[in-house]
Design goal:
Length: 85
């Protein structure tokens, strides 16, 4: 039961940390002020950060899905049963 809650908990922590780093981290370092004074529209900055955030989530969930499929495949094939039980 504990392991069933592990993936959503890690995903929630990842979302909070990355979301906070994207905006608050740039404001703290002063790079957001530099970005906003450059001849780049705010919409472009926001869309770039949003696309990065969505891409990071897709890669994270994709890697977790591939890993769980591989583990389930090897567990059903009996590889894990021979070694652990």
């Amino acid at each position: 039961m504990f392991y069933g809650m592990l993936v959503p908990a890690l995903s929630a922590i990842f979302i909070i940390i990355v979301g906070n780093k994207l905006l608050a981290g740039q404001v703290d370092r002063g790079s957001m002020a530099y970005l906003l004074t450059a001849p780049v529209r705010r919409l472009t900055v926001t869309l770039t950060q949003t696309l990065y955030f969505i891409g990071a989530l897709v890669v994270t969930f994709g890697s977790m899905t591939v890993t769980s499929l591989l583990v389930n495949h090897y567990a059903e094939a009996g590889v894990c049963k021979e070694n652990f039980g």
